[in-house]
Design a protein that fits this description.
The complex is a heterodimer. By secondary structure, chain A is mainly alpha-helical. Chain A contains twelve helices and seven strands. The longest helix of chain A has 15 residues. Chain A starts with a helix and ends with a strand. In chain A, the strands form three sheets. A three-stranded mixed sheet of chain A has the order 6-5-7. In chain A, strands 1-2 form a two-stranded antiparallel ribbon. In chain A, strands 3-4 form a two-stranded antiparallel ribbon. The radius of gyration of chain A is 18 Å and the shape is globular. Chain B is an all-alpha fold. In chain B, α2 crosses α4 and α3 crosses α4. The chains are: A mainly alpha, B mainly alpha. Chains A and B meet through β3 of A and loops of B.
Chain lengths: 276, 152
């Protein structure tokens, strides 16, 4: 309960500040799971497992390289593109930091327009808007345009708790993601849970294992020298265990994204976070 | 008949060549009561080469998970995922180590430790590792020889 309180205190700080992650860093350690059947006793952001200098880079918006993509996306927001001659702002208003509040914490989920209904993450929803409403070309996954706009949507909710729904239609994705999380893959024959549930807090060679939470995504990674999606991270972890990854943006990773988001339910969004 | 002779000649050439000493194929290894009595190759394990395999990131990478006090100075970054292996040479026989390395899941179905000499039962193995073992039979024997040196 103490932990929940410290989160609430941190969120209260956030409410008054424009850039609140620095305050957040001191204020919270972990949140307690609310779901009865949650596998973790406490839910901890990947931030807590990174070294001081990495955290400091995340905490300072002028140092955080991920913020550059946000700036670009803020420009793109009002630029018309595609045959319909529309920009994001034509449907969503001129201030995305207002209109996108409460959005980023809830994806992936089912979205629909007319009879076109599908389970989408933010990236896929952005492309849906582009192709259906703007009649523009879809953006490529993990390329700067797409990453920047995804960062923007998530950033509008920075400091807000992750809040995905796993019931109703989403339940089948939740179950699929859960099964994947505990499935061994690759020649090294490990599951996500071996590293991120059984061993978080332990070092595996030079790496300090976190819970593999996705509240900071898209994240800036020093290793990537750039920003990347949670799906890119899933791919990387699967390659490390010598497995054939699944495709970014497709059902398997959408399911895994939903399930990992649920494992981090309540963690404040940190996008764009900074990791090594 | 000619074909048969050619085949026979090829096989003996390979054996005589020494590059491929007789070894037990992964699918023929049997773990009995947590042990594999028969060495996987004819060549006795070499502890020095075993140490190399033990530490190399692209080979055993055992240090990723295991801490070894005597390697502390020379090798950085020992993992905390597995048991520290100091003194382990007194706890098990070579035959028991062989079983643990070939496939630790026979004894511990949930373990994170990989099976180092096994080619089947994997899920979505990446193309270039498909059908291959993580370590060769000789590397397994070498690592066992190294583990046997870890006495208090």
């Amino acid at each position: 309960m103490k932990k929940l309180l410290s989160l609430t205190a941190a969120l209260a700080l956030v409410a008054g500040a424009t850039f609140a992650v620095a305050e957040l860093a001191d204020g919270y350690v972990a949140v307690e799971p609310t779901a009865e059947d949650h596998p973790l006793d406490e839910i901890i952001s990947g931030y807590q497992f990174r070294i001081e200098s990495t955290r400091a880079t995340q905490d300072d918006d002028f140092e955080n390289p991920g913020m550059l993509l946000l700036d670009q996306a803020l420009d793109t927001w009002t630029e018309a593109d595609g045959a319909a001659g529309k920009a994001c702002s034509d449907c969503h208003g001129d201030d995305p930091m207002e209109s996108m509040k409460g959005v980023g914490t809830t994806y992936p989920k089912f979205t629909e327009e007319g009879d076109n209904r599908a389970f989408r993450n933010i990236e896929n929803q952005i492309n849906f808007c582009r192709t259906e409403r703007m009649e523009a070309k879809p953006w490529k996954y993990d390329k700067p345009d797409m990453l920047g706009m995804t960062v923007l949507v998530r950033h509008a909710d920075r400091g807000e708790p992750m809040n995905v729904a796993v019931d109703g239609d989403a339940a089948s994705y939740f179950e699929m993601g859960k099964e994947m999380y505990y499935t061994r893959y690759g020649q090294l024959d490990m599951a996500c849970s071996h590293c991120h549930e059984d061993n978080y807090g332990n070092y595996i060679r030079a790496d300090h294992l976190s819970q593999g939470q996705i509240n900071g995504f898209p994240t800036y990674r020093f290793k990537w020298q750039g920003v990347g999606s949670s799906h890119r991270r899933f791919k990387g972890c699967m390659k490390n265990i010598r497995a054939t990854p699944f495709n970014v943006g497709e059902d398997e990773y959408l399911a895994l994204e939903l399930y990992t988001a649920w494992r981090g339910q309540g963690l404040p969004v940190e996008t764009p976070s900074v990791r090594n | 008949m000619k074909l048969y002779i050619a085949y026979f000649a090829l096989v003996s050439a390979t054996l005589a060549g020494g590059a491929m000493a007789a070894e037990v194929a992964p699918e023929d290894v049997k773990i009995v009561d947590g042990a594999i009595e028969q060495p996987l190759t004819d060549t006795a394990g070499d502890p020095e080469r075993g140490l190399e395999t033990f530490t190399a990131r692209k080979a055993g990478n055992c240090l990723a998970c295991h801490y070894v006090e005597s390697l502390q100075e020379k090798y950085q970054f020992h993992g905390e995922v597995g048991t520290p292996l100091d003194g382990i040479g007194e706890a098990y026989t070579a035959a028991e180590f062989r079983a643990k390395l070939v496939n630790p899941k026979t004894e511990l179905p949930d373990t994170i430790m990989p099976a180092f000499y096994r080619t089947t039962g994997f899920n979505r193995t990446a193309g270039k590792f498909e059908g291959k073992t993580i370590l060769t039979a000789q590397q397994i024997e070498d690592v066992i020889a190294y583990l046997m040196t870890l006495k208090d």
